[in-house]
Amino acid sequence: MKEAVVVLSKCPQAHRIYGIRAEKAAQNHWRLTWAFPVKELSAKRESYDRASISGQMEWDPKYPGCPYCGTGSLIICSCGHVYCSNVREDGTSICPWCERGGRITSGGGEGRSGGGGVTILASGDR
Ligand SMILES: [Zn+2]
Ligand SMILES: [Zn+2]
Fold first, then answer.
1. Residue 11 Cα, ligand 1 centroid: separation in angstroms?
2. Which of 22, 28, 59, 81 could disulfide-link to 97, CB 3.0 to 4.6 Å?
3. In this structure, is residue 126 part of a structural domain?
4. What is the model's pTM?
């Protein structure tokens, strides 16, 4: 059995959450294999909101992208949550979980074909 977790992500466009299934490929290395819509209540029941992943990520070729807006790009906020990339022209983004904005820094992980990738949201200067 492969170790796998479900990480919650939020779609800033749809204002809804979805689960991302991540398989552990190696230490600090995750392969994202699936994304599916979840209800906030069942997410709590399944403890999806407690899972988090960090380190390197790669996209399985079958990864479908966000079930609402279809993007494969993700941003990991400094609050630890994941959401669909919504980078603005000035290179900043607002996290729909903690509602803090920040500048996008280049992150680890390899871009998925079709423009995916993980970027890290640095906490804003304050
Ligand atoms: Zn989305
Ligand atoms: Zn956040």
1. 4
2. 81
3. no
4. 0.80
Asked if the structure places residue 63 within a domain, the reply is yes
Cα–ligand 1 centroid distance for 38 (angstroms): 13
Query: What is the total count of domains within the chain?
Result: 1
- Regions of the chain where pLDDT drops below 50: 107-116, 123-126
- Cα dihedral 99, 104, 106, 108, rounded to 10, equals 10
**H/E element holding 21?**
strand 16-26
Nearest ligand, CA of residue 10? 1
pLDDT at residue number 23: 94
Which two structure tokens, joined as six digits, stand for 99? Answer: 């509602």
Ligand 2: centre distance to CA 78 (Å): 6
- The DSSP call for residue 124 is P
